Amino acid sequence: METFEVLRIEDHDSGPPTAEAGNYRSGAWGPDRVVAPLEIVQPDGPGFTVDGHLVRWQNWSFRVGFTHREGMVLHDVRYLDGDRERTVLRRAAVNEMYVPYLDPDPTAYRKNFFDWGEYGAGPLTASLALGCDCLGEIRYLDAAVLGGHGEPRTVRNAVCLHEEDASILWKHVNTRTGHAEVRRSRKMVVSSFATVANYDYGFYWSFHQDGTIDLEIKLTGIMSVTGLGPDGAARHGRRVGADVQASNHQHYFGLRLDTAVDGPRNRLSEIHAEVEPDPELDPYGNACRMVRTPITSEAAGARSADPSRAVHWLVESTERTNRFGDPTGYRLVLPNTTRLFARPGSVVERKAPFVSRALWASAYAPDERFIAGEYPNQGPLGEDGVHVWQRADRPLDDAELVLWPVVGVHHDPRPEEWPVMAVHRIGMRMEPDGFFDRNPSLDLPAPAPARSDDGCCH
Ligand SMILES: [Cu+2]
To answer: Considering the chain, what is the average pLDDT of its residues?
Structure first.
């Protein structure tokens, strides 16, 4: 690069370039379809307030921050329970993204991006537009990042705040009396979008009326594609367009949750289901017990997901108990996350050991900031990050817990994802689990029926 010399030209004999443009603009493939207008109206304004970066909505409050590396960050998530402000999370962020391409094609085998650790979510964050990205009563927050030469830059409308109708929260029809009770669900959504070259990723944190917090990640944009091989085959990918193939690849999201469930010090357990092993307790053969495994130190802090055993995790307070005398807690639920399909010792495997597990737990340390280490770009392979910190085997019982959930999409491309990909979703959920004494949404007002002859709501 510095001497402007051509050293070598690589010709991979990858077949003819495609003759078909991958155009996805309006009208490119025929006239637009007709859609009816759909308006979201809140005549009295939104149900939340924004005071600087402090957001309050119904019983929830939190602060919205922003960093160069992680983009949008939530701080100090609290739930107002009667007159008590109860803490749930000290901090929550999407901490790293890793995208390994699993194709030996000469243009694809070196692609394995740490989108946050190499580029930074902050500078990749897109400005959002009302009516396009977000619908209804929206409030935006701007963000500030540094350019490559250290100059400050404002990302206008970086974070979108809005309420969203979420269908039914709970419902029951008493079939004996015909009496129906139903409550509509509404969520408070905090979102941002990062454009990472060809791909676009939306990050949607939602706060729900039943105490649930979830993160939904929306993957969209354009797949990274190559030509077909000399024999016209897409051996480690899928043909998605004329002479175009998309390689098999994955998207891993390394999340970071600094928990504070009813206080700064928590403890962690893994829960799974199994058939009751004691025949005395299982006379009908249908007894299922939930088995709790305390994760007391970092030596046991790397966990695997297993939906077939209903594996989930419980974060408990060390200070408060509920009306049953049990520690108050929150449950962490992860979807059916993928694993890496690469040989041990391969570069894609050695670069990101964190993707081998669905959950890592560590004791808070201020300099342990990023799941794949401080410098995943040029650091030695696999010598920094959560798997290295864990060797200290610090206690996790009654500790300032940092949880590092990893959710991974295995992307087996489809022709329908070309030339632009409709949103694919993956996420993480935190549900109150003994945090409240009963359903915390019993105080929601019943909705009014839209027509007076439909006496269906209460
Ligand atoms: Cu993909």
So the answer is: 94
